[in-house]
Design goal:
- This protein is mainly α.
- The chain has one domain.
- Helices cover 72% and strands 4% of the residues.
- Strands 1-2 form a two-stranded antiparallel ribbon.
- The mean pLDDT is 84.
Length: 92
């Protein structure tokens, strides 16, 4: 028996998996945007990737149960790397 909460008949792990599939499909859709909107497509893929990193860290690596310093270090890294990548994108 798992210790995961159940929401609408699914565990939090299952919901995390649904969100991962959804963000993957969203990133894939962004990959098919016209060449004239390449910055929008790249921004969408970067944000979808950052969202997936956070979901994997929070749910599957169980950082929501980790000490606060570890959780906030991970969160800071995920937000920081996303900001750096978006800054590099806008500079080009």
């Amino acid at each position: 028996m798992s210790n995961y909460k159940i929401y609408f008949g699914f565990s939090t792990m299952t919901w995390a998996w649904f969100f991962l599939v959804g963000t993957t499909l969203l990133a894939w859709w962004f990959g098919f945007i016209d060449a004239e909107n390449i910055h929008l497509a790249t921004t969408g893929v970067i944000i979808a990737g950052a969202t997936k990193i956070w979901i994997i860290g929070y749910q599957f690596m169980e950082l929501h149960r980790a000490p606060p310093v570890l959780y906030y270090s991970f969160l800071s890294w995920a937000v920081g790397i996303t900001i750096v990548l978006l800054t590099i994108l806008t500079a080009t």
